[in-house]
């Protein structure tokens, strides 16, 4: 499976949002600048993320985006499925055959492709946005400690 630019950039943008929002909205231009992604492209990606309920938008000059849930409740698999569709290593519908060729393809499907799909989905469903945001913060020395006076 090869993930599209939409999936890769969307996941990066969601991690950025989790890291920098601190419960407040973040301008799409800020995310685009930090991640080196076109703002116009991110507008399309965030439109899908908003429609799926993963983010909320705040309109106006000081507008931006917020996560609709805690990063610890958002699974990486959910983000990727919104942006990529079903996660599968092959397009199973393209394998129409008959006879002994069909038996071999079914064997490969059950022993290889189905198991790869299961592991892939298991992996992305075990990781949360918070897991990735925490690692990003650690690698970049970002401290998100909130101080109250």
Write a compact overview of the structure shown.
The chain is mainly α. It is 58% helix and 5% strand.
Task: Describe what you observe in this structure.
The chain is mainly alpha-helical. The chain has a domain of 96 residues: Winged helix-like DNA-binding domain superfamily/Winged helix DNA-binding domain (Arc Repressor Mutant, subunit A, Orthogonal Bundle), CATH 1.10.10.10. Helix content is 58%, strand content 5%. The chain has 6 helices and 2 strands, in the order H-H-H-E-E-H-H-H. A two-stranded antiparallel sheet has the order 1-2. Helix 1 crosses helix 4 and helix 4 crosses helix 5. It is elongated and about 65 Å long. The protein starts with a helix and ends in a 9-residue tail after the last helix. The mean pLDDT is 91.
Key traits:
149 residues, Arc Repressor Mutant, subunit A, two-stranded antiparallel sheet, 2 strands, 58% helix, mainly alpha
């Amino acid at each position: 499976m090869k993930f599209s630019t939409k999936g890769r950039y969307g996941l990066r943008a969601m991690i950025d949002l989790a890291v920098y929002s601190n419960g407040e909205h973040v301008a799409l231009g800020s995310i685009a600048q930090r991640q080196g992604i076109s703002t116009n492209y991110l507008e399309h990606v965030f439109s899908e993320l908003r429609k799926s309920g993963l983010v909320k938008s705040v309109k106006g000059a000081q507008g931006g985006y917020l996560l609709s849930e805690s990063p610890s409740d958002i699974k990486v698999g959910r983000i990727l499925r919104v942006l990529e569709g079903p996660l599968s290593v092959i397009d199973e519908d393209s394998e129409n055959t008959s006879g002994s060729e069909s038996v071999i393809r079914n064997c490969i499907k059950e022993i290889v492709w189905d198991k790869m799909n299961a592991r892939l989905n298991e992996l992305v469903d075990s990781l949360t946005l918070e897991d990735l945001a925490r690692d990003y913060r650690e690698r970049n020395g970002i401290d998100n400690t909130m101080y109250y006076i």
